[in-house]
């Protein structure tokens, strides 16, 4: 797990909300505090859909909604002249991307125990911070998955030219 302070908040938020920069993620949850407090549970509400729709793997490949599907809604809740009082967004790397990452690091044996690679985005009056995490289905004393995810996420930020300071 690593914690990062984003140094260019405006640039980061533009990449998050107005581009495909984070479209390889799923939305687990979001909390947005503006003129009201809005909470989004990223779980797809499957009871809303017909049996036929639910059986379509293109419509429902994941338990959570994709960030791509949800970012416009989040943008609409944030946009305006005033900065939100608070914002928390928890994103999960899509399962196939997580598996590819493990495979590329010769760690595919960890895949059955991996629930998700996580990034938590938190904005408040002190700034914008990101925290990485790894959610496992069972306890593993080995922290290799954490290390793989941390390194991959830093590479992701560097590739996207997102400036940050590593917090200790």
Any key phrases for this structure?
about 170 residues; alpha+beta; about 30% helix
Note down, in words, how this protein is organized:
The chain has 168 residues and is α+β, with helices and mostly antiparallel strands. Strands 1, 2, 3, 4, 5, 6, 7 and 8 form an eight-stranded antiparallel sheet that branches. It has one domain (3-160). The radius of gyration is 17 Å and the shape is globular. The protein contains five helices and eight strands. The model has no long low-confidence stretch (mean pLDDT 94).
Strand content: 25-35%
Indicate the low-confidence ranges by residue numbers.
none
**N-to-C series of helices and strands:** EHEEHEHEHEEHE
The tally of structural domains comes to 1
Rg over C-alpha atoms, rounded to the nearest angstrom: 17 Å
Shape: globular
By DSSP (H or I, 4+ residues per run), the number of helices equals 5
Terminus-to-terminus distance: 11 Å
Write down how many β-strands occur, each being a DSSP E stretch of 2 or more residues. 8
Main β-sheet description: 8 strands, antiparallel
**Overall mean confidence score, pLDDT:** 94
Structural class: alpha+beta
Q: Helical content, roughly?
A: 25-40%
């Amino acid at each position: 797990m690593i914690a990062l302070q984003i140094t260019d908040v405006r640039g980061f938020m533009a990449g998050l909300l107005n581009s495909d920069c984070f479209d390889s993620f799923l939305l687990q949850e979001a909390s947005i505090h503006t003129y009201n407090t809005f909470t989004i549970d990223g779980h797809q509400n499957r009871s809303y859909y017909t049996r036929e729709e639910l059986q379509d793997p293109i419509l429902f490949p994941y338990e959570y909604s994709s960030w791509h599907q949800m970012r416009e809604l989040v943008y609409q809740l944030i946009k305006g002249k005033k900065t939100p009082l608070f914002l928390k967004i928890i994103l999960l790397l899509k399962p196939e991307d997580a598996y590819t990452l493990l495979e590329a690091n010769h760690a595919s044996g960890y895949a059955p125990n991996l629930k998700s690679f996580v990034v938590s985005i938190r904005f408040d009056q002190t700034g914008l911070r990101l925290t990485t995490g790894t959610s496992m289905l069972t306890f593993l004393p080995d922290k290799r998955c954490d290390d793989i995810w941390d390194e991959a996420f830093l590479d992701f930020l560097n590739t996207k030219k997102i400036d940050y300071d590593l917090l200790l």
